Amino acid sequence: MVLQRDQPIPVWGWADADERVTIEFSGKTFTTKAGSDTKWRLDLPAMSAGGPYTMTIRGKKNTLVINDILLGDVWLGSGQSNMEWRMQQLLPHTKNDIDSANYPMIRLFDVRDTISPSPLADVSSDGWRLCSPQTVVTFSAVAYFFGRDLYQRYQVPIGLITSDWGGTQIEAWMSPAALRPFPEFAVKLASVEENPGGSLEQLKQAFARKLADWQRTYTVADRGFTDKTSPWSAADLPTTNWRSMQLPGRWEESGTLPDFDGVVWVRRQITLSDQQAGKPLVLHLARIDDVDSTWFNGHKVGGTSPFDAQRVYTVPGSLSKAGTNTIAIRILDTGGGGGLFGDPKDLFATVGEDTLSLAGSWLYEVGIDTRQAPKAPNLLFSQNSLTSLYNSMIAPLIPYALKGVIWYQGEANTDRAYQYRQLFPGLIQDWRNRWGHEFPFLFVQLASFMNDKPQPADYAWAELREAQTMALAEPKTGMAVAIDIGDSTNIHPINKQDVGKRLALAARRVAYQETGVVSSGPMFKAMRVEGRQVRVGFNEVGTGLAVRDKYGYVRGFSLAGPDHVYHWAKGTLNGNEVLLSSELVPNPVAVRYNWGNSPDGNLYNREGLPAVPFRTDNWPGLTIDKQ
User: Fold this and answer.
1) Across the strands, what pairs with 502?
2) Residue 358 near residue 348, CB atoms below 8 Å
3) Are 579 and 533 in contact (CB under 8 A)?
4) CB neighbours (10 Å) of residue 217?
5) I need a surface site. Which of 240, 248, 573, 613 has the fewest CB within 10 A?
6) Which DSSP string corresponds to 237-257?
7) Where is 288: in which H helix or E strand?
8) Do residues 206 and 214 lie in contact, with contact meaning Cβ atoms separated by under 8 Å?
9) Is the peptide bond before 248 cis (omega within 30 degrees of 0)?
């Protein structure tokens, strides 16, 4: 393994309550005692880079020996699929990198995908492995290229821990405390916190028992059956308080009972003449979603379960009478639309040669609302559930000493980009608080993906990138821009080498505090309107601005006037500034650059790093109303 240099080294584990634990490391002996909860921890003194060392841990009954321990820098890589994407998934593009990955001073540790409703004590993993062509092939490409660059530069051991899961939202990686400031998560978070301490399997078993208990009682709890002397199938039932619905028609689609599953009774009276009375009668009840039981004048005459079957029931002549007759149908809807549905011409009764339409107004009353059934804690059963990945894939790593974190995530939150403005800093602060250390936090801005419209427009992906840029306001953060190395047809772009390289540049500046290193492309500083023209200045210009175009034209900028409508702008370099104009915008008030899914902006600094996408306006975009 690799332990973090120049920091106290937390070592922890479990033993019998009050058991004495001794650690021998680097010629020194340290002793502690397990608490009543069986946990123990020792913080060994900080050490400089070096090794290999052996650590011996002794308890009352057993001894553990860990060999080949190095002191160096440990980085945690986390996020969704672009962090998770393995070297082998990028073949043949990464073949030479895999074949040359003989770096025994780099060690790899990958956390298996696991979910949990409550914090776990340990992670699932194959453990530490030496970096080799055989081991790197299944390891994160971004993390490996990042770690390789750092090792080649600093020649100190590098430990890479990856804890990532494709398609995951940021809130799954945050602790409950980090999510409490967000009222929009309150209901879901309460559901999560109703079940503290239990394992996922224990929660599933508890829910299964609760649901089974409810299912044993709900069928007899149907209000249509509870009054044995006057069931809702009775011909003479008082229906003063019943409401009406139009049939045929599914009750959820009509809005009569929105989002309803359960049992509904419907009733209708028909009038038979003296000539029709006493004759067999045939009920044609169209289709019923899902199951029905049907009564005529209090006597059951049929029942069918397939939801798409035509209901046709024969009523004996002995049950029909002159005057008012009552049809009662008990409908069980187990999910979906619910109700008696179909074509009105399929809802009728026949008596001899006579046809009586049954379409129109029916009375109804709810017998059972299955929405009152115990709810499966579905929030706990998914990798995108609140806190589920923090609990299982981050919390167990704490307090393993880290140099810092690299993060590549955001694709799964693009429809809530404005919310990400608070969520992302919340995660950064949360993890630092949990580790008790303001470690460097470096992240990748989303690469280009999907096509753009011919004219400037609003894009959720652009808004998410903007939210990521805003996180640079947090101390000790750095961002690797990937807008120019994405693929409009592939959410997993092949070029992970440059992603790792740009993260390593950010690490050199933020984590290793190198002076003079250019780790970012140009960043917007200020704009000044000069008549019909706009002058834009930048920070992070390095040794100067550059345009990647043989003609020297600047692409990717747009201008808007007071009408808030953007138009493409003509741009030229003027030293370390860009001059913009558009014939369609005589009074410019705002500028955007590379504001799109896969924009084609070509502004860089001479160090080859792309300008950071930006906008100067704060006008509401696509995702602000989706919070």
Assistant:
1) none
2) yes
3) yes
4) 8
5) 240
6) ---TT-EEEEESS-HHHHTSS
7) strand 281-289
8) no
9) yes
d(C-alpha 146, C-alpha 155), whole Å: 14
Q: Residue 147 is encoded by which pair of tokens?
A: 């770690």
CB 455 within 8 A of CB 488: no
Q: What is the pTM of this model?
A: 0.74
Q: How much is the pLDDT for 275?
A: 94
The encoded tokens of residue 286 equal: 């169209």
Q: How many residues in total does the chain contain?
A: 627
User: Span 566-586, mean pLDDT?
Assistant: 96
Give phi and psi for 391, each to the nearest 5: -60, -40
Confidence class for position 187, pLDDT limits 50, 70, 90: confident
Kindly give the residue spans of alpha helices, DSSP state H, lying in 167-199.
176-179, 186-193
> Given pLDDT bands bounded at 50, 70 and 90, which one contains residue 551?
confident
**Nearest Cα residue to 319 out of 240, 239, 233:** 233
177, 181, 186, 189 alpha-carbon torsion, rounded to 10°: -20
| Alpha carbon distance 536, 526 (integer Å) | 6
- Which letter, b or e, does each residue of 502-533 get, where b requires 16 or more Cβ atoms within 10 Å of its Cβ? bbbbbbbbbbbeeeebbbbbbbbeebeeeeee
> pLDDT (tens digit, 9 = 90+) per residue, 468-515?
999 999 999 999 999 999 999 999 999 999 999 999 999 999 999 999
pLDDT confidence bin for 201, thresholds 50/70/90:
low
Check residues 118 and 244 and name the one with the higher pLDDT.
244
Answer whether 383's CB lies under 8 Å from 409's CB: no
Closest CA to 313 of 326, 304, 325: 304
Q: Grade residue 380 by pLDDT with cuts at 50, 70 and 90.
A: very low
Grouping H, G, I as helix, E, B as strand and the rest as coil, residue 411 is: helix
pLDDT at 602 over 80: yes
Phi/psi at 546 (5° precision): -145, 155
